[in-house]
Structure formats: structure tokens, C-alpha cells
Amino acid sequence: MAKMKISSRASSISSLSLLDVDDFKGSFSFDEFFKKLASDVLPSLQEQEGEDEEEGGVSKSTASGPTFIDAEKLLPLLQDTRSELVDLSYQVDSKLEKLKKEVALHDSNHRKTLTELEKGVETLFESFSRLDSRISGVGQTAARIGDHLQSADAQRETASQTIELIKYLMEFNSLGDLMELSPLFSDDSRVAEAAAIAQKLRAIAEGDVIAGGQAIGMPSAKGASNPNRGLEVAVANLQDYCNELENRLLARFDAAAQKKDLMPMAECAKISSQFDKGVNAMIRYVGSRPMFLEVEVMNADVRKVLGEEGTQLSATNLERRLSSVYKEIIETVRKEAVVISAVFPNPDAAMSLLVQRVLEQRVGSILDRILPKPSLSYPPSMEEGGLLQYLRILAVAYEKTLELSKELHTIGTGDLDVEGLAESLFSTHREEYAEMEQASLTQLFQAKMSELRASLPQQGDIQGTVNRSRVVSSSPSHQPMSTSVVTEFVRWNEEAVQRCCLLTPQPIPLATNVRAIFTCLLDQVSHYTTEGLERAREALNEAAALRERFVIGASVSRRVAAAAASAAEAAAAAGESSFRAFMVAVQRSTTNVAMVQQHFVSTIARLLLPVDGAHAACCEEMAASMSNAEGAALKGLQQCIDTVMVEVDRLLAAEQKVTDYCPPEDGNAPDHRPTNACIRVVAYLARMLEAANGALEGLNKQAFMTEMGNRLHKGLLSHWQRFTFNPSGGLRLKRDATEYAEFVRSFKAPAVDEKFETLGTLVNVFIVAPESLFTLIDGSLRGSRKEALRFIELREDYKMKRGLLITSLESLYPHLGNGSNDLVSFRDAHCKF
Q: Where is the Exocyst complex component Sec10 N-terminal domain (predicted)?
């Protein structure tokens, strides 16, 4: 029964249409479609869905597991649905095919219509083109007609004006008095029109006269028989009228200018611009300005710049005062520029005339008063400021005037070269500027040297004696060289270079002038440095002369010897003082040269680059200028070495005792300290070395120390050969040699160190036993055999053991034989001894 009910139910459903094409339009949902389809077959599906919603979306059937009891009910429904879906698909395909055919038909019709429209548009465009051509032709015809009409009107107007001009020209050609002219030429309200007509008449008449003169091959003149003779009268009358009219305009212009009424001034200026482009009116206006007419204005400028009467003008005061006066000039020109812009049709031309007059007259008068050009033959004295005062004022005036010209240019000057005009005011001063600068540096140098010479102590103060003691003053007798003086030279040169850059800004003239200025510095420093070194050398010579004065013989009284020793000490002090003074002079000379080199690198070198070879040539000049100073320095250094060695010889002679190197054998322990003479000599040399180290450097220091060491080595050898040595004295000599060797290491001269090391070994000949002498000579003293043989003669036991020494020498050196010069001299020395 159940199956029958189901089948009857399915058959009833299949008899109806289950699907519609509209169901698939829009957004299709299969779930909704299925619910709608199965709602009649499975009503419990909707009830279960409602219960699920009431219980929060949790299905009991789901919880208890799926059931498939109603599946057979859905099978017929799904089969019918499938059949209807297939039918619907066929229906849709049929409709789609029908639509495609309709679309193709419509598209074909549309293309035909579009083609017909395109043909119609082309025909329409052709019609429009023909219409446009016809319109253009009509327009051109109308334009030609308009041009012809305009030309005809212009010709008519020209003809009318020509008739009027001919009428006026006939008046000017026939009248004898200007009062008989038409009212136009005498009516003040129609001055502009009269001026324009008069200018046209002049152009016609003058052109006709010139053309007529060229036609007969000669200029037209009164009385010449040519067809244009009558127009010459018109030309003369027109010229007279124009002059009279311009004078009237200028008179009206002046009257309006006095009232400061700008409108009439502008009207007159505009009309007068037809006569010589209005130049006369501009000149008239510029010339009527109070700053050009009133003498008091220019005198006030000069008073402000020069200051109170009786005061000397300085560059600092001039800079401040010129700035103030130029500021007033700028304000005056600025006010005049406002009036000129409102009055003149061509304000640039008027401003050019005004600014030119300001620079040439007002500024020129100021410059003439503050810059009287000095003479190179008779320059002003240094009390009056010298040439330097003139150059400083020139630089300040030039700089401030250029600044003024730039300010005036910003106000407006038309085509006027304001800066060039300002520079032309200084043309006479700049022509001889380089010579003035060099003469100024020379004048400053001469004044400085005169000042330094005046500060030197007088001859009575240089060299004095102290009553009966006959002790020479150890104070320096010559003024020492100063770096501050050269610093002042460099400062002068730097100031001169700055002025040169300002007054000759062009690169090539600047390089030439700078080189000449730097050459002045080289000459000044070379002269001052050489003179300072020569003065220091004179002190060394004086000290040497003093030493020679107090050299005494051996057979003198004790009192005379004591006085001579005291004087010799004073002379030694003078020598040491002169040594130090010369080293200070050398040090300051080095500093001076360094300052010049620094000035060249930082200031001069870059300015010489525009001229080929100028830099190298200047370097050569710098080296050549210092050659005299270098020669004086080398001679002085040699004198310093002589001074030191003379004092060393004096100390050794005065302090060295015979018992120092040959003490008596009294059983006392030998003294291992250096001798007093050694101590004094080393202390003295240390003081001299300190002075030399502070003054010398580099190769100069190395050469000086090497020469000093060699001379000391030679002097010590000569000194020690005056003494006799026993073994105890040899140890004392060994201590002295060690002391000297340690001291000369501070010379940092390897050759000298080597000599003194050999000297320390050489004195061992006084210490070893006689039988060991020649072993020593054959060993460590092989290179100093001659000196060793001479030193052996100074041994105390030499007299007693000379035979043994000769025999030992012949046995030790059989290859020498009788032909050996060393051996022969050694034997001869024995015999003489």
C-alpha cells in the first residue's frame, strides 16, 4: 500500500511542470532549488529545519545519525526533474540559435546603414569644403577691397596732409617774418602739433635741397641757378622757427621746473623730444640741479671729507667720511631719478647725463682735493705720512668710488658704463701706481733703517773700560737683529699686494706688479739680514781683537800676569757673548727667511700663475737675494768655531796642570775624576752647544757640529802632546778622553764619534806596560799607528826604556826595516829626546 501511494504521488507531481527557465536567472543556489523541489514530497524536511532553528542550529537527526527512509520518494521526482532539465536545455539552445540568426541579420543591416551614412558624410564634407573655399574667396576679396579702401583713405589723408604741408611750406618759403605765419604756429595750446608739422616740413625741405644739390653735382647754395632754390629759404625759416619754438618750450620747461610742476615739465619734454631727441631739455634739467650750480654744495662735500682745517687726513677717517658723502649723493640721485622717470620720455638717457655729471663734477672735485699727486723725485716726508699715506687714501677713494658707481648703476643709468667712468677718474693715478708702490716701500725701509741706526748706542757707550781694571764690558756692543722688523716688512708688503689687487685687477698686470712689490721685500729682508749678520760678525771680530791684546809673554811679573789673566777672562766672556749673539742672529735670520717664504706661498704664488715662468723666476730671485746673507752666516759660523776653539785652548792652558797627568808616586789612591781643565772645557762647550742647537737645524747644524768636533779632536791632540804621562796620569787622561767622547755624542756626528772612540783607545799607550805597547799598537791601534808612536814618546819611562822600545819595535815590525819613515822618525825622536 505504501509503494502505491508513493507512485501515485510521484505521477501526480510529474504531470505538472517542475522547472522554469526563470529559476536559473540571477544568482542560482542549488540548496534553495532542492528545497523548493522536494518541499511537496518531503514536508518533514521543512519541519525538521524549523526545529533546528529553534534549538540553536543543532539537529537531533544529525546527532542520532542519518536516515534514508524517504529516499525512494525522491527518485521519481529527480528523474522527472532531469528530463525537464534536458528539455529546458534544448529549448535554450533553440532560442540561442534563433537569437544568433537575428543578431547576424541586424548586424548586416547595421553595416549597410553605416556604409550609406559614411558616403553621405563624405558628400557633406565635400559640400562644406566647397562652401569654405567660397567663403574664403569672398573674405579675401573683402579684405582686398578693405585694403584698397584703407589705402585709398590713407592716400586721401596723406594727400590732405601733403596739401596742408605744401601750404605751410609755401608760407615758410615766402614770408620774411615769422610773425606772418598761420595761427597754428603761434598758438601755445597747439605747440605739439606745430612742432610735429615743423619737423615734417624741415625733413621735406632739407631732403629736397640735398636731392637737388646731388642732381647738379654740387651742394645747393643761395644764388645758384637750380629748380630747388626756393626751398632753401624755407629751410632757413624753418630752422629759425624750430629754434624759436624750442626756446619757448625750454623756457616753459624751466618755469615749470622751478615750480616743481611735473605735468607741464613732462609735456614740454615730450614735445622737445622731437628736437634732437630732447637732449637739450635733458641737459637743461641736469645743469639746473643745485648740486651743480651751487658752489656751497661742492664746498660742503670737500669739508665733510677733509674734516676740520689743520687735521691730517687718514685712510680710516677718509673711508668713513667718503661713505657719508657718497650716501648723500646716492640719495640725491635717487630722488632725481623719480622726477626724471615722471618727466622725460627717455629716462635712461637723462639718467646717463645726470650720473655722468655727478661723477665728473661732484665726485671729481672731491677726488682732486683729497688726492694731490705726489712727485717721485721729491716725495712727501714721513712726518707728513709719506707716499704710504697717498697710496692708502688712493685705495680707499678708489674702492668707495667703485661702490658708488655700482649703487648708481642699480638706480638706472641706461647705456652709460658707470664703472668705466669711475675708473677713468683715477687714470692718472693708476698710470704710475706700481712705481709709487715701490717708492713707498723703499721710503718706509729707509725710514725704518734710520730709526734703527738712531737707536744704536753711541761709540762712547759701545766700548768702555772700568777705571784701572782694564776689563772690557761684556754687554753687547751692537743692536741685535729683530724678527719684529722683518714682520713689519712683510706687513708692508701684504698691504701693498692688497692695494695692487684692488687697483690692478687684470691678471697679467697684477702678476707683473706683484712680482715687483715682492722683489722690494726680498731686497729689504736681504739687506737687513745681511747687515744684522755682519754686525754680529763685527762683535766676533772685536772679541778676537780683545783676546789678542791680552796675550803676554812668559817672563812677566806675577802682578802683570794676574791682570792679564783677569782681562783674558773678560775677553773670553765677550767672546762667549758674541758667539751667543751671532747664534741668535742666525736663528732670527732663519725665522725671517721662513716668514718671507710663508708670505710667498700664501699670498704671492697664486697671483703669479697667469704669467708663464713668473713663479719660477720669482723663486730664483728669492734664492739669489738670500745668497749674501748665507755667505755672511757661513763666515760667521766659521768665526764662531774659531772663537770656541781659542777659548778651549785658553782654558786648557790655564787649567791643565803638569801633575794632572804625571802625579807623584806618594802611595795615595789614583784620582779617577776628570781633570779641572776637562770639566771647564766641557762646561764651556755645553753652553756653546746649547746656543748652537737653538739657532741651527738640518744640514747646517750637522756641518757645524762636525767641524766643531774635528777641531776639538785636533786641539786635544795638540794639547796633550805638551805633557808627560805616567800610568796614573794615563788613567786620568783616559777619564778625560771618556768625558770628551761622551760629550761629543751630543753632536750627533758619526765621524766625530769615531775619532773620539779611537782617541779613548789611543791613550791606553800610557797605561799598559812597555812590553805590551806594540801588541796594543798592532791590535786596536793599527789604524792610528802614527799617533800612537808619537804618544809613546810622552810616556814618563820613555827615556829609560827607549832601547827596549826600539828593539821591540824592530822585532814586532821586521817588514818596516830601515826604509820605514815611521821607524826612522821614531829613532830620530829618541835621539833628540
A: 79-187
Q: In the prediction, which pLDDT does 307 show?
A: 78
Q: Looking up cell 751630543, which residue turns up?
A: 746
In angstroms, the CA 717 to CA 726 distance is 17
| φ and ψ of 766, to 5 deg | -90, -10
Does the pLDDT at position 812 exceed 70? no
**Rounded-to-integer distance, Cα 217 and Cα 284, Å:** 41
Helix axes 315-343, 295-306, angle to 10 degrees: 150
Write out the DSSP string of 418-433. HHHHHHHTTHHHHHTH
Q: How far apart are CA 704 and CA 712, in angstroms?
A: 12
Say whether pTM exceeds 0.70: no
**Close Cβ partners of 474 (under 8 Å, ≥ 6 residues apart):** 570, 573, 574, 577
Q: What are phi and psi of 472, to 5 degrees?
A: -75, 140
Q: Measured between alpha carbons, how far is 358 from 379 in angstroms, rounded to an integer? A: 32
Nearest-angstrom CA–CA distance, 513 and 506: 11
pLDDT digits (tens, 9 = 90+) for 499-526: 999 999 899 999 999 999 999 999 999 9
Grade residue 59 by pLDDT with cuts at 50, 70 and 90: very low
What does each C-alpha distance from 526 to 173, 207, 485, 497, 522 come to in angstroms?
87, 78, 12, 19, 6
Alpha-carbon distance of 675 to 654, in angstroms, equals 12
| DSSP string for residues in 676-687 | HHHHHHHHHHHH
Q: Using an 8 Å Cβ cutoff, are 326 and 370 in contact?
A: no
Q: What is the CB neighbour count within 10 angstroms for residue 786? A: 13
Question: Which helix (DSSP H) or strand (DSSP E) does residue 671 occupy?
Answer: none
Residues 419-428 as b/e (b if ≥16 CB within 10 A, e otherwise) read: eebbbebbee
Query: Residue holding cell 729682508?
Result: 525
Separation of CA 47 from chain center: 104
Task: Please tell me the total number of residues recorded for the chain in this structure.
Answer: 833
Separation of alpha carbons 116 and 711, rounded Å: 130
Among the residues of 504-557, which ranges form H helices?
Answer: 507-549
pLDDT of residue 181: 64
Task: For residue 76, count other CB atoms closer than 10 A to its CB.
Answer: 17
- Whether 32 shows a pLDDT value over 90: the answer reads no
Which pLDDT tens digit goes with each residue over 758-786? 888 888 888 887 777 777 777 777 767 77
